[in-house]
Amino acid sequence: MASTVDELLSRARLRDAPLPPDDIADTAPAADEDLRARRPGGGPPAPAGAAERQAALRAAAQDLRALCEAAVSGAAVTALGGDFLTQSLPQPAGARVLGCILLLADTEDSARFWWQYASGAGDPIASYCLYLHHLALGENRQASWWHRQTAPAAEAALPTALRVLRAMRPGGPGPGPGRAAVDAVLEYVPAAVNYVDDDLELPLPAPDFSERIRALTATARRRT
After folding, report:
1. At what angle do helices 92-104 and 179-192 cross, to 10 degrees?
2. What sign has the CA pseudo-torsion 125, 131, 134, 138?
3. Residues 6+ apart with CB under 8 A from 43
4. 197 has which bridge partners?
């Protein structure tokens, strides 16, 4: 099983981008340590005091959650059901949405894996999710590395989008045709993505994952 998954993952890298170092914290430039010129959503450098640092960590976590809530729309979860390379491996955009679903379900380790998968295949929003994720953990060197993997267009647009999202009410999609589908998928996904093999440390969806997503979203649409 491991060789098959490894082969699929290697083919999923659609662009010639550097792999993250084995230990980003030890190999990233020291000048990036505090991300002095960057802050989620733009704005001045983060202050150095303990209280201000905690506020900066919370801001990054809130930005990441807002970005994930915006990404996990009714249309996105519907598309996820038909956007798979195999029964267990989504296309890059689907992997990014899957990571966002897992983040909203408080399974950050699995979310990080799928963002790394999507970023390696050229998805810049997944790279930005990883930037915010590490920034929220105070892992500034890792955050800086992932920030450099974000495409310039996404880097310019996402901070503005996050400012708009923060100005709007939190909580993701409001009532509407897509809300029922999102709720159904958010309830299903955490139990359906697991480390299925002791020798394969990958959080993979269940074999019937794509079929179940399609069934859940179709049922939600009919009820709506």
Report:
1. 90
2. negative
3. none
4. 200
